[in-house]
């Protein structure tokens, strides 16, 4: 097990480094300069470049950047909030995005598991068809469509929830964004849960358990879920990506001051460091989740945790 | 020396809803199981053997429907003999009162019949918790003695291991241990050695026989191997296309078989002394019941088929107290067909050998 | 056999005179064989058509493709034709307007209340104009632009997927066929690349390459090939040791010949399925990019850029965003349904990626 873990951690670190490198290279090719004020003369631009260290060779810049990152310095914003450290900007926005994402995952996962289980146990019934249909829709229709629809009907027309996010009314104004964001998660998990559960339900060890007299919740949790949940973990990776991109869009629509919104702004105004910083955070988060999934695999599946042999 | 009948199945008919329509997989099956005896059900793949016993256990597929039949189980409760029709009770009652507790099952493939995420110990003790609420220590002790009974040493170590750490033969022993955990009266074995090496086969067979002698449980043994039947069975049911086409004691079937299909099965048994070069096999394939319209499903492959076999499925004819055959050849008007001479010879040989061991 | 039992049987059945003679089975034996094989293609067709979802998906895709090709020609408006004075007009359809539906009226909501107006009536030049999906803020016909956008989105998605198939297949086939060290290294590289959240990279790529049809296509293609390569590799591993490959090798065929002639036909089905699943992903990515401002530049329109543009007038003219959103959703949905159905009919063991 520990050999397995070690290998996974090693790969994760390698990926992280590769990502930083790619991000950095990409940024070098970003068109336009961050200093787009027309009033700046070429000489002034030179000066600004030197001041921000943009005139040194690429590799040197990269090494400096990594060094700075390791000490918690992600550079400063160039255009959105001149000279404000990127880390400061991120600090204020991170908690909000995190909370949004957290709730979306919780809501999505639990509802997804429930729907998927119900569909698996009532195969080919009307519930199954409805559940499957909803799942396919949830996976196919982009999250911003839902966000738009929800905000229009529940926010604008019927005025049940506020249209825009409001820190003072956090609970109510979080409802629509969380739901929009969670729909993709819910649909993916429901679909996958159903497939996996059906496969488990047809397996012989379930029949054997039944022949022993195992029923009800014991059968469900100790035999069915325990085995079905292992492959369901694989869904988590694309899910996290979905959440990240979804958050960029949902935050735009509901005007939530989170990381996603900042990233979109930064892209549109060529603010290198912010783009780097947030991309890095997203990537690191993704890698971290993948690592956690790998660890969970190791814990849940005895075939990985305990090596065979007698 | 009275034989006590504990399970009586009459006229069981089961069908499955498939994309090709409703298929009647089991058609009017009768079965009798006596205390302390072994009943063997023989037949090719697809003949319906597994479905029959799984129906006894109440393990039905989603698209399975029971059309008719009675499964009468006689057992003792609180000192009183009662009987109950297993087909009439709810699934919940079946699981709670009978599955594992009185009737247990050993499945075919030990590689897939154990839960990969539960320890061996947990899986053996689970039944005890469910049915008797046995305290943990007691259950553990019992599990250890069960492991000993099925011939596994290092019991302590094994209890904490997972199925993937054990070989096929060991896993099947575990499955047997699980089945015996709650001291059932009836043990159903669905081809328990088919997925195992031949050497292990013999050991498992001996094990089951030893357990039976020790505990006096009744065993239903499903197999497609007549050699196994000869070793373990007291009573034999031969199944074809969802019907029992011949049944009788093991002597009846081996020394006086009457149905052409049984002849075919016996002829197909490999034998050191067989003179011919080719191994006999019954020509053709088992029927696709979705396409079967009328008559005897064995008609096409039956060397000795009569015209009436094409029209009407034969009823059951009684040959002796214990011996029943479903073949029109048993009718008075039918031509008197004898079994093929090679088979006759072989059976004589077998009789001779057997008498030498008595 | 007792006499009674015999009598009971004789009474129960009607016997024919020749019943108890040995039968001449001639014809009957042959009939048994006929039931055995239905051509695999017919089996596939039957299985596929039983799945309502996939049939619906296929039908919708055909409808959408039809409109994408012929839609813009169905009326007289050009896709970039801006008619001053015809801005933000609600949908108006000839026949239905007599029933009060889609007659060009729209409700304007303000904090003081709502008001219903009809720009067709207030504009003297527009009494005979019909915008089936309405017009956008620059006076362009949304119907035409929607189908033009669909065309572009589909084009981008298809090109990206085809590129993906080639890259993914090649990578997977090489990795799987040669095995050993080559395979190990290639798979390690893949694991590392897999750890990169694709949309983040896509976004950055577009920023760097400047939004344009080509750059968007490239960016999308670069992120979807991993799934393909996995499938290709899994298949080749399965087939590599089969006899027909061994036979080809003994005859002296080169690896490339073996890969293309022997193995390819067998993985064809899986690839089709994977491609079908990748299309909605590609369409979504394109629309997502457009939504955050990295879509195809003006004056071209893609579904994503249409949605992004209409978002600005979302609250006071919701009809603008509905057509592209509907078409986008339907397209993604239909491809997913179709892919699901294809997979169930061809190879249920293929798990979703």
Number of strand elements of chain A: 0
Please state the CA-atom Rg of chain C, rounded to the nearest Å.
30 Å
Largest sheet of chain C: 2 strands, antiparallel
Summing up helix and strand content along with how strands pair, one would put the structural category of chain C as mainly alpha
Q: Can you walk through the features of this model?
A:
The complex is a heterotrimer of chains A (310), B (358) and C (353). Chain A is built from 13 helices and no strands. Chain A has helices at residues 2-28, 42-51, 58-70, 86-121, 126-140, 143-157, 170-201, 204-212, 216-232, 236-254, 259-268, 272-300, 302-305. In chain A, 41% of the residues are buried. Chain B is an alpha/beta fold and 358 residues long. In chain B, 34% of the residues lie in helices and 24% in strands. In chain B, helix 4 (136-149) crosses helix 6 (168-180) and helix 6 packs parallel to helix 7. By secondary structure, chain C is mostly helical. In chain C, strands 1-2 form a two-stranded antiparallel sheet. The longest helix of chain C is centred in the middle third of the chain and has 37 residues, at 142-178. Chains in contact: A-B, A-C, B-C. The interface between A and B is medium-sized, with 28 and 39 residues.
């Amino acid at each position: 097990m520990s050999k397995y873990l070690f290998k996974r951690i090693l790969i994760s670190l390698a990926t992280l480094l590769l990502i930083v490198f790619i991000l950095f290279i990409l940024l070098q090719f970003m068109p336009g300069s961050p200093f787009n004020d027309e009033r700046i003369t070429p000489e002034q631009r030179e000066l600004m470049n030197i001041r921000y260290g943009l005139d040194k060779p690429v590799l040197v810049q990269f090494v400096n950047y990594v060094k700075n990152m390791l000490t918690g310095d992600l550079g400063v914003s160039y255009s959105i909030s001149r000279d404000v450290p990127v880390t400061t900007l991120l600090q204020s926005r991170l908690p909000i995005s995190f909370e949004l994402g957290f709730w979306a995952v919780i809501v999505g996962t639990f509802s997804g598991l429930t729907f998927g289980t119900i569909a698996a146990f009532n195969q080919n019934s009307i519930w199954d068809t409805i559940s499957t249909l909803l799942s396919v829709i949830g996976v196919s229709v982009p999250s911003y469509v839902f966000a738009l629809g929800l905000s229009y009907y529940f926010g604008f027309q019927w005025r049940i929830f506020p249209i825009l996010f409001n820190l003072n009314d956090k609970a109510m104004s979080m409802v629509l964004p969380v739901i929009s964001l969670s729909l993709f998660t819910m649909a993916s998990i429901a679909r996958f849960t159903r497939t996996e559960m059906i496969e488990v339900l047809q397996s012989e060890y379930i029949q054997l358990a039944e022949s022993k007299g195992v029923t009800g919740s014991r059968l469900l949790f100790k035999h069915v879920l325990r085995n079905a949940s292992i492959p369901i973990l694989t869904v988590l990776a694309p899910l996290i990506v979905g959440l990240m991109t979804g958050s960029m869009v949902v935050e735009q629509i509901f005007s939530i001051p989170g990381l996603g919104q900042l990233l979109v702004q930064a892209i549109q105004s060529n603010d290198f460091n912010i783009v780097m910083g947030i991309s890095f955070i997203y990537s690191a988060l993704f890698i971290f989740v993948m690592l956690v999934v790998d660890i969970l695999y190791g814990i849940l599946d005895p075939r990985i945790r305990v090596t065979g042999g007698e | 020396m009275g034989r006590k009948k504990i399970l009586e199945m009459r006229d069981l008919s089961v069908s499955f809803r498939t994309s090709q329509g409703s298929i009647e997989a089991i058609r009017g099956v009768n079965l009798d199981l006596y205390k302390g005896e072994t009943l063997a059900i023989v037949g090719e793949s697809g003949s319906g053997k597994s479905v029959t016993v799984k129906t006894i256990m109440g393990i039905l597929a989603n698209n399975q429907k029971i059309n008719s039949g009675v499964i009468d189980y006689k057992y003792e409760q609180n000192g009183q003999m009662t009987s109950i029709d297993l087909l009439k009770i709810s699934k919940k009652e079946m699981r709670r009162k009978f599955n594992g507790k009185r009737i247990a099952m050993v499945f075919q493939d030990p590689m897939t019949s154990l839960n990969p995420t539960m320890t061996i110990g947990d899986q053996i003790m689970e039944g005890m918790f469910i049915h008797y609420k046995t305290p943990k220590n007691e259950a553990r002790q019992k599990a250890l003695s069960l492991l000993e009974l099925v011939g596994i040493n290092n019991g302590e170590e094994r209890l904490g291991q997972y199925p993937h750490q054990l070989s096929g033969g060991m896993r099947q022993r575990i499955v047997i241990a699980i089945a015996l955990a709650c001291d059932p009266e009836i043990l159903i074995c669905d081809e328990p050695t088919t997925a195992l090496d031949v050497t292990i086969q013999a050991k498992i067979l001996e094990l089951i026989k030893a357990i039976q002698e020790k505990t006096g449980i009744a065993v239903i043994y499903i197999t497609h191997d007549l050699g196994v039947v000869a070793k373990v069975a007291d009573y034999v049911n031969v199944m074809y296309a969802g019907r029992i086409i011949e049944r009788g004691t093991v002597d009846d079937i081996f020394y006086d078989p009457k149905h052409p299909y049984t002849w075919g099965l016996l002829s197909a048994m490999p034998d050191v002394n067989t003179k011919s070069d080719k191994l006999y096999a019954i020509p053709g394939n088992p029927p696709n019941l979705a396409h079967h319209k009328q008559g005897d499903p064995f008609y096409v492959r039956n060397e000795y088929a009569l015209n009436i076999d094409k029209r009407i499925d034969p009823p059951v004819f009684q040959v002796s107290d214990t011996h029943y055959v479903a073949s029109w050849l048993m009718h008075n008007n039918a031509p008197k067909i004898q079994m093929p001479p090679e088979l006759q010879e072989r059976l004589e040989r077998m009789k001779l050998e057997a008498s030498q061991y008595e | 056999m007792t006499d009674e039992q015999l009598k009971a049987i004789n009474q129960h059945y009607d016997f024919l005179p020749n019943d108890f003679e040995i039968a001449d089975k001639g014809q009957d034996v042959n009939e048994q064989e006929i039931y055995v094989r239905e051509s695999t293609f017919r089996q596939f067709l039957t299985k596929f058509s039983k799945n309502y979802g996939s049939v619906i998906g296929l039908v919708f895709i055909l409808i959408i493709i039809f409109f994408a090709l012929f839609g813009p020609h169905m009326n007289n408006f050009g896709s970039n034709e801006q008619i001053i004075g015809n801005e933000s007009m609600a949908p108006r359809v000839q026949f239905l307007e007599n029933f009060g539906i889609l007659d060009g009226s729209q409700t304007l909501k303000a904090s003081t209340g709502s008001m219903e107006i009809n720009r067709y009536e207030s504009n003297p030049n527009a009494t005979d104009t019909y915008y089936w999906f309405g017009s956008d803020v620059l006076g362009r016909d949304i119907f035409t632009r929607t189908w033009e956008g669909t065309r572009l989105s589909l084009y981008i998605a298809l090109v990206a997927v085809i590129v993906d198939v080639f890259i993914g297949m090649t990578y997977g086939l090489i990795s799987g066929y040669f095995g050993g060290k080559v395979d190990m290294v290639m798979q390690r590289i893949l694991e590392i690349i897999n750890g990169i959240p694709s949309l983040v990279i896509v976004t950055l790529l577009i920023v760097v390459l400047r939004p344009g049809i080509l750059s968007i296509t490239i960016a999308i293609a670069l992120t979807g090939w991993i799934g393909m390569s996995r499938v290709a590799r899994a298949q080749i591993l399965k087939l590599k040791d089969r006899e027909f490959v061994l036979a080809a090798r003994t005859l002296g065929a080169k690896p490339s010949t073996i890969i293309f002639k022997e193995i390819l036909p067998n993985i064809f089905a899986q690839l089709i399925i994977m491609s079908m699943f990748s299309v909605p992903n590609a369409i979504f990515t394109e629309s997502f990019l457009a939504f955050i401002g990295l879509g195809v530049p003006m004056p071209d329109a893609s579904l994503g850029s249409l949605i992004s543009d209409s978002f600005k007038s979302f609250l006071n003219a919701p009809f603008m965003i509905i057509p592209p959103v509907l078409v986008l959703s339907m397209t993604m949905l239909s491809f997913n349904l179709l892919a699901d159905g294809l997979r169930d009919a061809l190879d249920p063991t293929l798990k979703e990626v």
